[in-house]
Amino acid sequence: MTGTKAEPSTNIGGLPISVLGMEESARLLVRIALRARGKNAVPFYSTSANGQVIALASEDQDFRDLLWQADQIHPDGMPMVRLSGYVSSEELTERVATTDLVHAVARLSQKAGLRFYFFGATPDGNRRAVANMREQYPDLIFAGARDGYFKPEEEAGIVAEIVRSKPDILWVGLGVPREQEFVSRNLENLRGIGVIKTSGGLFDFLSGKNSRAPRWMQSAGLEWVYRTMLEPKRLLGRYLKTNPAALWRIIFHSK
């Protein structure tokens, strides 16, 4: 962890999961970003855990170590929330999905004058995500944006360009585990940025490429079913493997 811990947290599935709710999480990220201005400090690093992340962390020590480098891990899965009161020392109040958190942070950020940077997705997906957010939040400032397709030898230049644009909050949507690996490699090189938030497929939702499940399915913890219906070839095998593994970890490796 980089030194700024977002307590309180509780151990779920072997990971330190933040117990802050949606609005508390948004306010915290905004406060940290504002305090970081002009200090050239290492960014506050926030990531998320869902069933896929918990399952992968259980079988891959290197990936688990990447998650432990984060200052904060949000609960982005309803089974974690529902079971937390039975398996961990502190009950989670709600799921903090990045697809919802970005809006809570944006509402506060446009009032505070914070600057966003969107890094990830395809060139068209990235442009559409930025355009849709600007339409929804006219006063939100974008320091810059870039797609997530690049060669390894281009990474240092991209990082330097991000730093030069001086964003307060950098949203990194490169997918798991690529985004965690990117942050781990570049945390020191991204000094001066207040907050880094890994974002998974966030930009695909913001661009309109992917749709969210109906609210009742989200509340019931069935968003994975909805996504599988939309992309069965890509997601069915993954969920059949990761969901049982994640439930096992949550039930037997929480405290």
Largest sheet report: 6 strands, parallel
Task: Figure out the total of helices.
Answer: 12
Helical content (DSSP H or I, runs of 4+): 40-55%
The counted number of beta strands is: 8
Give the DSSP E fraction (strand runs of 2 or more residues).
Answer: 15-25%
N-to-C SSE series?
Answer: EEHEHHEHHEHEHEHEHHHH
Q: How much is the radius of gyration in Å?
A: 17 Å
Distance between the termini: 20 Å
The secondary-structure class comes to alpha/beta
Overall pLDDT: 93
Low-confidence stretches: none
Q: Describe the strand arrangement of the main beta sheet, using strand numbers.
A: 4-3-8-7-5-6
Overall geometry comes to globular
Protein described:
The protein is of the alpha/beta class and 255 residues long. 51% of the residues lie in helices and 15% in strands. It is built from 12 helices and 8 strands. The chain has a 6-stranded parallel sheet with strand order 4-3-8-7-5-6, with helices on both faces. A two-stranded antiparallel sheet has the order 1-2. α6 links the parallel β5 (115-120) and β6. It is globular. The chain starts with 8 loop residues before the first strand and ends with a helix.
Q: What is this structure's SSE topology?
A:
Layout (H helix, E strand, L loop, with lengths): L8 E4 L2 E4 L3 H15 L7 E6 L1 H9 L1 H8 L3 E4 L2 H10 L10 H15 L2 E6 L2 H14 L4 E6 L8 H11 L3 E5 L4 H9 L8 E4 L3 H5 L8 H5 L3 H8 L1 H21 L3
Parallel strand pairs: 3-4, 3-8, 5-6, 5-7, 7-8
Antiparallel strand pairs: 1-2
